[in-house]
Specification:
256 residues; alpha/beta; 11 helices; 12 strands; 37% helix
Length: 256
Amino acid sequence: MITKRIIPCLDVRNGRVVKGVRFLNNRDVASPVELAEYYSSAGADELVFYDITASAEGRSLFTDILTETARRVFIPLTVGGAINAVSDFDRVLKCGADKVSVNSGAIRNPSVIEEAARRYGSQCVVLSADVKRVNGVFHVFSKGGREDTGMEAIEWIRSGAERGAGEIVVNSMDTDGVKKGFDLELLKAVTDAVSVPVIASGGAGCIGDFITLFQTLPKVDAGLAASIFHYGEVKIEDLKEAMAREGIPARRIRRE
């Protein structure tokens, strides 16, 4: 079985890490540079850095903070926020990112996925989808979850993978920050639809939620979370030990 990844998420607004519930009421948490450095040494497999208001505010991503974050971490770093063209991929990769996450920009211009995959390779292109149930149907939302596109989410994700996205991050708006477990129904629909790696995001509240995720949906490649890691409710070391006890493969944490 492929090693499962544990990925903390840094939602950045005005240069600070914040966290809310169902994409609302964000609270200040910490410096993204300091938090990223901590996770890099605490056993995280990768980091995701989202500038969560860049698209809605119509501005570029905070490259100065990103550059300093990338300089201090030694694990793969995925970055998203106002990625609208191949030139944005180039700018973010030059700041030190390993992968680039595109969301609203791909909704406006789906061809950016193909163009970036051709230039940088599919392994650099991550399609992030903010998904919420609307009258029982999975819809894709844009602009940081602020706008319902009306598009059916599973078909959108399938088309993104076909265009060249090498990885999918599925952000469930229904479970985000609620801490009642990952959105297994949504994630199963996605893993049944695509063959590329899928990262589950939204809903983790305890170690058991990750165990349930990987045991129920073995095709999910990684679990992403924010507040439970930020506030010390779950330590990555403890999580990986629990995964090992359950026979779920995880990268070992190096001891100093």
